[in-house]
Amino acid sequence: MLFTLRLSYSGKAVHRPTSQGAFLEGHVKAFTVLGGVPSVHIRYDSLKPAVKQVLFGRSRLESARWASFKSWYQFSAFYCAPS
Length: 83
Description:
Radius of gyration: 12 Å
Oligomer: single chain
Strand content: 25-35%
C-alpha cells in the first residue's frame, strides 16, 4: 500500500509505502515533512482505515481512534461523495 497526502493549494505531497495499520503514522510523518497540519480540512477518498460505515452523501461513521486523532491534530476530514 502507498500512503499519499497532497496539499490542494501548493501541490506539495508526501508519499510513503505503508501497511494499512500504519495509516495514522503516515499522517504524522506527512505533517512533519510538510511543516504542520492543514488549517481547514483534508480531503479523503476511500478511507477504509478510518471509516466504519459510509452514510448518506459525505457523512461517515468514523472509528473512535480516527476521531480522536483528528481532534488531537485539530483538523477536519472532508469526504468525497461516493459515485
